[in-house]
Amino acid sequence: MARTANATVHDVAADANVSIATVSRVLNEPWRVIPVTRDRVNASIQKLGYSPNPRARLLARGDSGTICFLLSNRPFMHSVHARILQGATIEADARQIQVVYAHCSYLPESAPSEIELPRILGAQGLIDGVIVAGANYPNLLVVLDELELPYVVYGSNLAGEAISNAVYVEDERGGYLAASHLLGLGHGKIRFIGDTAMPWYRRRYDGFARAISEAGFPCPAALGKFEGDEFAMGVAAATELLECRNKFTAIFAGGDMAALGAMKVFRKRGLDVPDDASVVGFNDEEGASLSEPELTTVCIPKEEVGASCVRMLRDLIDHPGEPAEPVMLPTHLIVRESTRREP
Which of 8, 87, 145, 245: disulfide with 303, CB 3.0–4.6 Å? Predict the structure, then answer.
């Protein structure tokens, strides 16, 4: 079939010998179509000069000026990612870029073809790139690579190997700062709450363990299993700690919500924070300064994470094929009321 200015989806389907539904899927959810079929449909689209709609034909002449902020496996109101989105939006506004929000949930073991991505990611020409936030796994990156759409990941919450097109925070240094603070207050029996099967908790524990080792103390094993609810992990870990009658004078939790969960258990058991146990969290979430007592925590530069993601993504869009340089942002300790010197 010859190239025509008025080619339709029916023409593409006939030329590629597939159904109209398959053509639609190639256009909107290409990761769900096996490569050989996808290539055949794309070849027919190119041969016939088919554009799915007038807007796509216009956008084919240049950038859409729009990027997508994709939040995976996290609730919309998660305060860390909300502030990362805020930072991304401020930076994008300064560059006259529009940010659209989308959400997806998937399992680490899901096949890439089974991941339900928002259709805007597969719609040709509607967005120029993606910022990937939330808790993510390598199977999602396979899908994004197949889309050939520039993307940047909030790398500190990415499982698997480190990648170059990512923005990280100094998790390990933050863990070291937290443990050093407690050690400096005279605490020698410090326990860590966080599921080290998750890479962000593992890095924070590694920093914690390094500080404990340098101080000459044996490093205890981490407590807690993360199943999507950090507060519940903190509750369960603190309950286990008390029921096992393990002696401790301080807790470092790898997330503020885990710290607040532990503090709730301590209050119910008649323990005072910080008189009976000092507690340190991580992230400086909204609730950290509102808790009673106010939570000492490691602060990550959330707005700067978002801004850095936008800057990196813009570079990838403007310079296709050029490798990205990963960005590492500093963490710092905020001392509040939940820690005190060990008598």
Answer: 87
The torsion of the CA quartet 257, 262, 266, 269, rounded to 10 degrees, works out to: 110
The DSSP 8-state label assigned to residue 19 in this structure reads -
Please, what CATH class does the domain formed by 171-300 belong to? alpha beta
The residue type found at 186 is G
pLDDT tens for each residue of 160-203: 889 999 999 999 999 999 999 999 999 999 999 999 999 999 99
Strand-pairing partners, residue 297, are 281, 334
171-300 shares the fold of 66-169+303-329: yes
Q: Which of 51, 54, 101, 49 is nearest to 76 (CA)?
A: 101
DSSP states of 181-234:
HHHHTT---EEEES-TTSHHHHHHHHHHHHHHHHTTPPPPPPB---SS-HHHHH
Query: Does the CA dihedral 38-39-43-46 come out positive or negative?
Result: positive
Fold exhibited by the domain 66-169+303-329? Rossmann fold (3.40.50)
- Rounded distance, CA 241 to CA 249, Å? 12
Give the pTM.
0.81
Q: Side chain identity at 298, as an amino acid letter?
A: V
Q: Residue 70: which of 141, 121, 122, 146 has the closest Cα?
A: 121
